[in-house]
Design a protein that fits this description.
The chain is an alpha/beta fold and about 260 residues long. Helices cover about 30% and strands about 10% of the residues. It has 7 helices and 6 strands; from the N terminus they run ββααβααβαβαβα. The protein has a 4-stranded parallel sheet, sandwiched between helices. The protein is globular, with a radius of gyration of 32 Å.
């Protein structure tokens, strides 16, 4: 009884150095270069460029909502860190910012915008550039007496914008852009020390933080959240000529007192 030959599939072929095509040897079909005219024609059609390509993977239909909620096609929340060298150098090997990026990998993008030597005064001036980059154009309909356009006329305290957006975030909902402000290590340099040019008074330090909080929360309609980071203690034996931990403690306390007042 003559053995029936299975149909030839183009993927089962291999090329010889001479360019001729041969089917691999199998137990049920010996290798042969002889094919019928019909087989050769079918093979040439299958291997021609005009033939439709077979899909490598067949994806079953998935509801759009399920697809969007379970793939990386959705934008990830952002964690934006602004501050001084403690923040900037935190992205170095084994730094705390690098640790955050590893901890929140695949769940949140960590963006470091720390600047070595910066104080809250300089951070406040640089913040609009950061917000323009991260949040996009400013919506001036939400702005109150913002120092973005009038740097010397902002009055804070109990005042609020007439069109101020609500920034409350429930426990089941999280902001798309999360800012951590971390200044004070340079602000707290003692006024008569070797690094007095960095000194910012305690009152101005708190005011600069208020400016930055209002600037972030009222930049545009995007969902934001703000957290404050206190200045850490320093090695006064090494930095005795420029810093005093008792002074730094005052700035840390001012930061902690401001947080509930600013609802952050």
């Amino acid at each position: 009884m003559e053995r029936a030959h299975r149909p030839i599939h183009p993927w089962s072929l291999r090329h010889t150095p001479e360019g001729s095509r041969q089917t691999p040897e199998t137990p049920d079909r010996p290798c042969s270069t002889q094919r019928s005219a019909a087989q050769a024609y079918a093979l040439s059609r299958a291997m021609s460029n005009d033939a439709p390509a077979l899909p490598a993977v067949v994806v079953p239909p998935v509801p759009a909502k399920t697809f969007l909620n379970n793939t990386t096609i959705n934008p990830r929340p952002k964690l934006v860190l602004v501050g001084d060298s403690i923040t900037e150098l935190g992205s170095h090997s084994n730094g705390w910012v690098a640790a955050l990026a590893i901890r929140y990998n695949r769940r949140m993008d960590v963006i470091n915008r720390g600047a070595n030597g910066y104080t809250s005064k300089w951070g406040r001036l640089a913040l609009p550039l950061i917000l323009e980059e991260i949040l996009g154009p400013k919506d001036y309909s939400l702005a109150c007496n913002s120092d973005v356009s009038h740097p010397n006329t902002l009055h804070l305290g109990n005042e609020s914008c007439s069109q101020e957006k609500s920034t409350a975030v429930s426990s089941d909902d999280y902001a798309d852009f999360n800012f951590v402000i971390g200044y004070g290590a340079n602000d707290s340099c003692i006024a008569n020390g070797t690094r007095s040019k960095y000194h910012v008074s305690l009152e101005d330090y708190a005011l600069n933080y208020k400016h930055m909080i209002e600037m972030i929360t009222n930049w545009n309609e995007k969902s934001v959240a703000v957290a404050l980071m206190t200045p850490p203690p320093c090695d006064t034996e090494v930095l005795i000529e420029s810093r005093d931990n008792e002074v730094t403690k005052l700035y840390a306390e001012a930061c902690m007192n401001l947080a509930p007042e600013a609802n952050v």
